[in-house]
Amino acid sequence: MAILTVSQTILAIVSGGVVGFTLGLLGGGGSILAVPLLLYVVGLRDPHVVIGSTALAVSVNAYINLISHARKKNVWWKPAIVFSLPGIAGAYLGTVLGKLVPDKQLLFLFAILMIVIAVLMLRPKKATSGQTFDRSNIRWLRIIIAGLLVGLLSGFFGIGGGFLIVPGLIFSTGMPMILAIGSSLFSVGTFGLTTAISYAVSGLIDWLVVLMYVVGGIVGGVFGSWAATKLSAKRKTLNYIFSSIIIVVAIYMLIINFQAMHL
């Protein structure tokens, strides 16, 4: 475990706050910034420790948010659990593969994933009508396959995967967006926990950083949720701004890790 300076401790809390605020404001995508913030703002040097630590922090924050969504009846437990079970196996396999990939190659691939996420966030979201929602019309095989694949991706990169889980749940069940967001948090937390356990066994988690990130994330999430209600009319604009930030950061990561491709 790295010894953090006072400035690094403050930056870790602030970085966690940025991630929490973004998640609360936009409902997804924020955790993709957790890795570059720890690497380039806080200054941790081992990408594998960063991935393991952020996976645990994202997991804790997801479970905390799950509680509030469950109280509001925004969680459909059966599809959420069925999605998560094969995802656990996928996430574990992803961590095994991820720990085998050298640092710079892993970060190069992570940057590509960031650009993909940013593009997906810019796509218009189709609203689902509550009148056509049928709880009996569930494609269980699609849920199982999607859970396995998303879990694999989540474990490999140490991300929550909510940006894939939400459309996956909507596609396979037809559930409304708010129900998909609430249900996805169970999978996000479970995949993150699986990833974190695997990295912890290998000694690749900085527990102090996780604590700082969780504290910052909780505070940031409160302010993000408050801002979401105030800025709901400008949500589309906020999505464009945030996606642009992700792309800029990703391009920076691609450039500095370009040598990893041996070109």
UniProtKB/TrEMBL annotation:
Instruction: State the protein's name.
Output: Probable membrane transporter protein
The cellular component terms of Gene Ontology attached to this UniProt record, alphabetical and capped at eight, are: plasma membrane
Write the record's keywords in alphabetical order, separated by commas: Cell membrane, Membrane, Transmembrane, Transmembrane helix
Instruction: Write out the transmembrane intervals.
Output: 12-42, 48-68, 75-93, 105-122, 143-171, 177-201, 208-228, 240-258
* Species: Ferroacidibacillus organovorans
User: What is the membrane topology listed in the Swiss-Prot or TrEMBL record?
Assistant: Multi-pass membrane protein
Q: Which family does the record assign?
A: Belongs to the 4-toluene sulfonate uptake permease (TSUP) (TC 2.A.102) family.
Q: Where in the cell is it found?
A: Cell membrane; Membrane
